[in-house]
Amino acid sequence: MWRCKVCGYLAARDSAPKVCPICKAAQDRFEEFPLTTGPPLPVWRCKVCGYLAARDSAPKVCPICKAAQDRFEVFMGVSPTGG
Predict the structure, then answer these.
(1) What is the mean pLDDT of each run of 10 residues along the chain (83 residues)?
(2) What are φ and ψ of residue 41, in 5° steps?
(3) Is 15 helix (H, G, I), strand (E, B) or coil?
(4) DSSP string of 17-80?
(5) pLDDT at res. 82
């Protein structure tokens, strides 16, 4: 799993994308994001389209479907405080 350090986009693949499909950040702006030991940041899911973002808080607007921040929920049983 790879996470864009700019926008929080998650990519479930063997290597980081060459360019982030959300914010267009270059491949060197991605970091490995291990889910087996528990994520270092909360993972937010858009309840409208399923977009996932790993960041401190939910995006103000979903970059995919434009849903408002209140349409996001914490995903995978991870709380915003990490507990």
Answers:
(1) 90 91 95 70 89 90 94 70 43
(2) -130, 155
(3) coil
(4) -SB-TTT--BGGGEEE--STT--SS-EEEETTT--EEESSS--SB-TTT--BGGGEEE-TT--T
(5) 44
Sequence-separated (6 or more) residues with CB below 8 Å from residue 68: 60, 61, 62
**Cα–Cα distance for residue pair 44/9, rounded to 1 Å:** 10
Amino acid code (one letter) for 42: P
Phi-psi region of 80 (alpha: psi -120 to 50; beta: other; left: phi over 0): alpha
pLDDT given at position 78 = 43
